[in-house]
Amino acid sequence: MRRLHAAGVKLGFGTDAGAMPQRVIGVAEHRELQLLVEAGLTPSEALQVATTQAAALLGQTDRGRIAAGKRADLLVLDADPLVDIANTQRIGAVWQAGQEVAGPIEAAADTATRD
Question: Nearest to residue 76, comparing CAs of 96, 58, 92?
Fold first, then answer.
């Protein structure tokens, strides 16, 4: 993946496989980010693949980055994912189209650790 990315190959993110025992929507994406980093991308590059580049590949010009006039779909985190990509699971709030739709969301791993 790192060599493909360095060579300028456009990388996609996610899948159209839907919910399966091996791929739970909302969990698999965090794992995919971790795998991109393990493959040699920086956390910043992995996040760009998942946002800006994914939107561009799908022709979605109204999303994929934070800017005036763009759709305000935001994942507000409680920790810096550039320090540790696993911090994408430390969700403080979720916004869709400029409206907050969810508050803090515990990662499944955090819940399992405490049980």
Answer: 92
